[in-house]
Structures are given as structure tokens and as C-alpha cells.
Structure prediction request, 333 residues.
Amino acid sequence: MKRPRILSGMRPTGPLHLGNYMGALDNWVRLQDSYECFFSIVDWHSLTTDYADPGAVRENVLEVATDWLASGLDPARSTLFVQSLVPQHAELHLLLSMIVPVPWLERVPTYKEQQQNLSDKDLSTYGFLGYPLLQTADIIVYKADAVPVGEDQAPHIEIAREIVRRFNNLYGEVFPEPQTLLTEAKRIPGTDGRKMSKSYGNAIYIKEDPENVRPKLRPMVTDPARKRRTDPGDPEICPVFDLHKVFSPPGVREWAAQGCRTAGIGCLDCKKALADHLLARLAEVHARRPEFASRPDTVWDVLVEGSRKAREVAEATMDDVRSAMKIRYDVKK
Ligand code: SF4
Prediction:
């Protein structure tokens, strides 16, 4: 039986951290069992905000792909590719730009939000405004049935569906409307308690030597009211406990919560238990990564071969699109 097709992508911003891993990658690894998966390193997307500084893109593509393979994305089951090696995305983006009204793009919630957040960059470019259009092209060029996303990304899928409806109304049924495959949002705080992010300097990376993880966790922010070992704490406001919720089994979580509330354990005991379970959870990834990291040519080969496969699928779609838009000249119609 044909499995439903999904597509998702990641920007090549550098080595992946636990937020990327638990927020997306770990889920993608599981989805490989039930879906036909296309996973893309979306290098053009990184240029929508970092166009002035593209020096690290190539290296970052390799870092992301190495983390993907170490995490268990399997090129025998999934198509792993680089967006810019599949120029059909750009062609479809251009054609969609003919039919999509600018206000549709301006009202995407993240548009204004990101312009404000990244005020050190000039984001008054067409590329940045057109980002949801490129994302739509990424999805529908594979006629994907669904897109695994967190809730914050759901509006982008909604605009993709609107664009598909407009295209199909104008030119006939070419694309299925992609569905949202909502993934469970896991809160992964960094060592300073804020959301884990490379730019905050609070991240723990997949590639990190396990020996460095414990010293990073030791000074991690806790319940600020728990100043002394004898003070009881509140695990529900402690970022360390947020990580326990993700990495530790229920019995350990209970032990930590109870010990915290009664001052029966110290924060260092609590962090040590977290480190044990976090490292156990990542043990396979840590074991696999050095092998891939030592063979960058093999990693590139995976991406080149995946991109070749992706191009075949994307080109078949573009044949349909060109026919529908009456700009296909290699056939007599
Ligand atoms: S005991 Fe654990 S949950 Fe409680 S404040 Fe310390 S680190 Fe946080």
C-alpha cells in the first residue's frame, strides 16, 4: 500500500542542539516507519534572513546532514536532500508568485514579528516577504499529503493550502491540499532557562562530547527561590525539571519532584540524574556520529543522491504545472 508522503525541512544554521533534536528530528526518525519521507536542508531559506553572510552555509549543510544521519534518518527509507540542488523549487516559487496576492504574504504572523526580532538585518527584501511562498513550493512540488510541524508553524501550512486552492481553481486540480501533521511541542530550555537556541549561547549540541554535557548541566538555572540545599523547591518552575519531563522515566521524575518539594535531594543530585538519563537517551546518536563525521564525502554522497531522487519527483510535478499553465512546449497539445 502506498504510504502517505510528507515533507519537512531544516535551515542549515549549524550543528543541531537538543531543541532541534527533540522538537523535530526525533519525531522524523519515527515517521519514517509510516510515511514516505522527504527531508530537505533548506539553504535558500537561510538566505532569506542571512543573505549578507552566506560564508558558513556549506559547512552548516554538512553539519546538519551529519546530525541527521547520526540521529537515525535513513537514506534507504527517506529522501534526504538539499533544497538548492532541486531547482524546480525555484521555478515553482516563481510561478506561484504570479498568482499570490502580496497581502496574503504580509499577513503571515511571523512576517512582522521576525522583522522586529531581527531588527539588525534589513528584511525589507522580496525574498523575506516571499518566504512562505518558497515554503509552499517546497511542499507542493512533491505533492506532499502532509507536513509535520509544531503549532507555531501551522499558519504557514494554512497559507500553503490557500495557495493550492487558488492554483487548482485557476488551472485545474494539480496539487493535493497538504494537511498539517501536528507534532507534540516539547519545551526544551537551554542552560539559562530560556528556550534553547544557538544565538542565546545556552545550547547543548548533538555533536557534543558526552563528557562536556555534565559540566554544562551542573550550573544550569533552577527554581530561583531554592537558594540553599535545605530550601524546598517547586519543580514546575524549574527548567531542569522541564528536561526531566522529556528525558527521564516517570519514576525518576517523581523522585525528582518529591525530593525537590521536600528538600530531600539537592539540585546537583537532581541534575546528575538528569544527565544520566539524557546521555542514555542520546547514547546511540553519540555512538553513530563520529563515524559519519569522519566521512564527509559519504555524507555529501547521501545528499547528492537524495537530491537526484527529489529532482525526479519534482520534475514530474513541474511537467504537470507547466501543462496546466500552458507553458509546456515539448509536447503538442
Ligand atoms: S531539585 Fe531539581 S527540580 Fe528542584 S529546583 Fe533543584 S534542579 Fe530544579
User: Anything to note?
Assistant: The chain has 15 helices and five strands. The pocket of iron/sulfur cluster is lined by residues 222-223, 226, 233, 235, 238, 240-241, 256, 260, 265, 267, 270-271 (CB under 6 Å). The chain has a mean pLDDT of 94.
